Amino acid sequence: MPTYNKLVRDKIPNVIEATGKSFRTRNLDEEEYIKELKLKLAEEVGEYQATLDDGQAIEELADVMEIVHALARVHGSTIEEVDKVREEKANKRGGFQERIFLIDVEDE
């Protein structure tokens, strides 16, 4: 029996059950949940970085966004509030649309 020991989407147990396989799960406490969400975020970002085409990239970005939504909730916020903060930062410091790559800055 393969061991996974990782956070999975809510409906994955139903999917496994439909195949007739047995499995074990447990519910995480808040501290474990945040830790596992952070690990899952790193996993999904890695999967995004490994994509080879736009379709795969969008699929992986959707997974990243699902985790960002969950992280916003555990930190007592909403994705709308996160987006508001993102927008404020973009207005103040800009976004990344101009593809500016900083090489160096002269020290005094």
From TrEMBL:
Gene3D superfamilies referenced in this protein's UniProt entry, alphabetically: MazG-like
CDD domains named in the record: NTP-PPase_COG4997 (cd11532)
UniProt-listed SUPFAM superfamilies: all-alpha NTP pyrophosphatases (SSF101386)
Protein name: House-cleaning noncanonical NTP pyrophosphatase (MazG superfamily)
Organism: Evansella vedderi
Species classification: Bacteria, Bacillati, Bacillota, Bacilli, Bacillales
